[in-house]
């Protein structure tokens, strides 16, 4: 990027909630590596082409910019946001430490374990939908199903009472702030969340249960200090509900915005799995994307990105790349293969992607079965995005049936 180039404010906003910014297509064609100004005022380089995003995310030399004082900060407050939090600093982000952390947790997120958990998810989703119906319509699908389902699942996995879900949601939102919260609010949320989780870890040490944190505590691995356990519990609670809750709402909104999509799934429920993958690819409100700190020069689309650059990888923009997906601008519920980048790529790809996929499939299957007449209660263009957070979502998903 030269000094004469004008910086783009990031994130780039779309005029239509469920549609991508028109700027994405222009950037992929003309400026696939472009300078952007983050909410903090710091400068980063935005990457929008599929191959470039995949290349950066898959390269083990480049890591998350956690607590790297040379990296661009995300948030407009002095803390810099979740990437500069105590939680992020505690968790190993690179090398063997990170791989060891992932390997230990991976067995809790295998396809085999998801299959075992699936009947419980289906039963809970069914109860939530029934409760929504009893309450009458219009109803907010996000509040009734999309939020409580993944919270219940991750709380069950961690042995944490899901009755505290409103507290988790508040702490998560504040820690994921980009422009919404002050330094004092962020500091208070981090302290309260840390204290809560420390108390939970102490309780599990005294009385272990059949849950992930108890297994880590009793496993005898010296890696799992109290600090590591607290940070891991925080990270899993935030990641385990925030993005999936938002994605359930966005997926249903996308399918109902053009009701021929919903009708196609009613006619052929076998398409649920590919429909979920296509919703993940098609999501235009995925949030910030993934950041990498470049510690040696790398060439992307003919541009040399110099060492010391913070690169913002827009998986959502990459997922609309016509060079990677035929008919990328169309939502094809039967699309296969579908190598979207919504869960990232490489050693930092989403640890809980099997869990997220299962929850999305379960939510969609239960809704199709129980509420075939489901429809949006407002025009799609009246849906409103979440603002000020690094994750993307809708404020509400009003529905009727």
Automatic annotation (TrEMBL):
Transmembrane segments: none annotated. GO terms for molecular function: heme binding; iron ion binding; monooxygenase activity; oxidoreductase activity, acting on paired donors, with incorporation or reduction of molecular oxygen. Coiled coil: none annotated. The keyword Cell division does not apply. Pfam families: p450. It comes from the Bacteria. Keywords: Heme, Iron, Metal-binding, Monooxygenase, Oxidoreductase. Pathway: Antibiotic biosynthesis; vancomycin biosynthesis. Its cofactor is heme. Involved in the coupling of aromatic side chains of the heptapeptide of vancomycin. Belongs to the cytochrome P450 family. This is Cytochrome P450. It comes from Amycolatopsis acidicola.
